[in-house]
Amino acid sequence: MDRETQNYWKAQRRQMLKRDRRQRIYMGQDMVVTKILIGLMVLSYLIERFVPGLLEALFVRPGGIILSYLLSALSPGSFLGLLFAGFFLWIIGSQLEGLTRWWQYLIIFFASGVIGAFAAGVLGGGAIGGTFASFGLAGAYVMVMASRRVQGAAQWAILLLGINVVLSGFQLGLLGGMLAAFFVGLILSRLMRI
User: How far apart, in whole angstroms, are the C-alpha atoms of residue 92 and residue 86?
Assistant: First the structure.
């Protein structure tokens, strides 16, 4: 990170410690939500990998389609997807978690994951939203950094997104899901005035 971004984060960290003391006492420590989401992604991957019939059994019940889209926000799809989504969530999500309330963070995560999975499904891609949820968090992060005039951080996040897009193989369904999730994150962060 460049010097301007580092100074910004130092000041932001000091302000967060003062402002969110109650939230940290309630949650126990910093980045709890990010750690829980990464843990749920790992659990989802293990279930997909070793007990695939379990998820299918849940989806045939009433309300299964809604449950499938909610769970898809946690499904990385592959081990490589788990690594990238987990890394991205750790890097971008942890920064965003410090700037939001826990419920705002979860709304951005799940809404972008669900919308991204839906868009990918419509365009012929799979409905795996773990990567899409990370793109939604990145969209929110870019909006927050742009609104606070921290250019280096927003450019860094966009570079990481570009690398992920290239690694996706330019598949229409995946690109559509990533783009939809990114804009959902942008819009939600703007609407919630983060």
Answer: 10
pLDDT in tens, 93-127: 888 888 888 899 999 999 998 898 888 878 876 65
- Check residue 105 and give its pLDDT: 92
Q: Distance between CA atoms of 110 and 132, rounded to whole angstroms?
A: 9
User: Half-sphere exposure of residue 131, counting CA atoms within 13 Å on the CB side?
Assistant: 29
Q: Answer left, alpha or beta for residue 149, where phi above 0 means left and psi between -120 and 50 means alpha.
A: left
Burial of 117 (0-12, 13-18, 19+ CB in 10 A): buried
Spatial distance between the Cα atoms of 28 and 133, rounded to a whole number of angstroms: 24
Residue with tokens 């773990």: 130
- Give the C-alpha separation, 73 to 143, whole Å: 21
Query: What pLDDT is recorded for position 26?
Result: 43
What are the extents of the domains in the chain? 3-191
Looking at residue 91, the DSSP 8-state letter turns out to be: I
* Mean per-residue pLDDT, 75-95: 83
Protein fold of 3-191: Rhomboid-like fold (1.20.1540)
